[in-house]
UniProtKB/TrEMBL annotation:
<keyword id="KW-0503">Monooxygenase</keyword>
<keyword id="KW-0560">Oxidoreductase</keyword>
<feature type="domain" description="Luciferase-like">
    <location>
        <begin position="1"/>
        <end position="251"/>
    </location>
</feature>
<dbReference type="GO" id="GO:0008726">
    <property type="term" value="F:alkanesulfonate monooxygenase activity"/>
</dbReference>
<dbReference type="GO" id="GO:0046306">
    <property type="term" value="P:alkanesulfonate catabolic process"/>
</dbReference>
<protein>
    <submittedName>
        <fullName>5,10-methylenetetrahydromethanopterin reductase</fullName>
        <ecNumber>1.5.98.2</ecNumber>
    </submittedName>
</protein>
<dbReference type="Pfam" id="PF00296">
    <property type="entry name" value="Bac_luciferase"/>
</dbReference>
<dbReference type="InterPro" id="IPR011251">
    <property type="entry name" value="Luciferase-like_dom"/>
</dbReference>
<dbReference type="GO" id="GO:0018537">
    <property type="term" value="F:coenzyme F420-dependent N5,N10-methenyltetrahydromethanopterin reductase activity"/>
</dbReference>
<dbReference type="InterPro" id="IPR050172">
    <property type="entry name" value="SsuD_RutA_monooxygenase"/>
</dbReference>
<keyword id="KW-0285">Flavoprotein</keyword>
<dbReference type="InterPro" id="IPR036661">
    <property type="entry name" value="Luciferase-like_sf"/>
</dbReference>
<keyword id="KW-0288">FMN</keyword>
């Protein structure tokens, strides 16, 4: 099982904020945490894609990824996940190819259709309904694979049209970087993942994950694609300390983790909260389910205490 950590791009007061000890985001905090995470032995770093989140600074995803490429040496770098509506699909393919090059072949492209309408509208973007956003995302994935591997690309889609487009330099990875699709929509997202993805990312308890995997497997049968070739990635927020008393002290700072209201988005997650022994027990059923990667957002960011303790006492149980 691989382990990755989120590098937050926003903090401060908002309904989305879950960082108890970070009032604002800065590059210095992101860089320090990324280096501590890599030094602890984590496999990857994920970067959310937002324009406005929280009431303070929000760093742009691809700029942050590019900076992290220069600040780290070995970890996989990936957007978790790109909001396809915020960038022209062919340009996104070009940007991602360059990130793969400057990182010496460490990019994984995480794709999504976005969900936070207010930031898109604030920046003057149109905000189509979810099915239309997902169809556009699928076209982006299709043309990205071709731009990364073909000399010139003509493409006539509903959302993008290309005429002799070339992506040079190509990505460093051969034949191309992996593509991860995030989300659990059973009619569109999981169908797209079955048809196009190298990896699929979602969240929630094991019964939810098991059901979604059954749906994904069914879509793979429809498209005659290999379900076993798709890596399974799971996301959660994490609070870990040596003792239960220390965990409770952090929960006092973020009480929404104790028992979120049913309408709180947090209620759909199964976050990892407890001592190292408790977290190992919580993760074992996910390993049995076939989860290949766990992506964590550490609630004590930018302090490295949680990520270092997790790497020292939880990761070895899954090596």
């Amino acid at each position: 099982m691989r382990f990755a950590a989120n590098i937050p791009t926003a903090a401060g007061a908002s309904e989305y904020s879950t960082l108890a000890f970070c009032d604002s985001i800065s590059w210095e905090k992101q860089r320090s945490f990324a280096r501590a995470t890599e030094a602890a032995g984590f496999d990857g770093l994920g970067v959310p894609d937002h324009l406005l989140a929280g009431d303070g600074a929000t760093t742009e995803c691809f700029t942050t990824l590019t900076a992290l490429a220069g600040a780290t040496e070995s970890v996989t770098l990936f957007p978790k996940t790109v909001n396809n509506e915020l960038r022209h699909g062919p340009l996104l393919a070009k940007m991602a190819a360059e990130v793969d090059n400057v990182s010496d072949g460490r990019l994984k492209l995480g794709m999504g259709a976005g969900w936070k309408a207010d930031e898109a509208l604030a920046y003057g973007y149109d905000w189509p309904d979810a099915p239309e956003r997902l169809r556009a995302m699928e076209e982006t994935i299709e043309l990205t694979k071709r731009l990364w591997t073909e000399e010139e690309v003509d493409y006539d889609g509903d959302y993008y049209q290309l005429d002799g487009a070339a992506c040079r330099p190509r990505p460093r990875q051969d034949p191309r970087p992996p593509i991860m699709v995030g989300g659990g929509g059973e009619e569109f997202t999981l169908r797209i993942a079955a048809k196009h993805a190298d990896e699929w990312n979602f969240w929630g308890p094991t019964d939810v994950m098991a059901h979604k995997l059954d749906v994904l497997r069914s879509h793979c049968e429809t498209y005659d694609t290999a379900f076993d070739d798709i890596d399974i990635s799971w996301f959660a927020r994490c609070i870990v300390r040596e003792t239960e008393a220390e965990v409770e002290a952090i929960l006092d700072e973020v009480p929404r983790f104790r028992d979120p209201d049913p309408d709180d988005p947090m209620a759909s997650y199964n976050n990892l909260i407890g001592t190292p022994e408790q977290l190992v027990a919580e993760l074992e059923p996910y390993a049995e389910l076939g989860v290949d990667e766990v992506v964590l957002e550490f609630v004590d960011f930018p302090e490295p205490t949680g990520v270092e303790l997790f790497a020292e006492e939880v990761v070895p149980a899954f090596s």
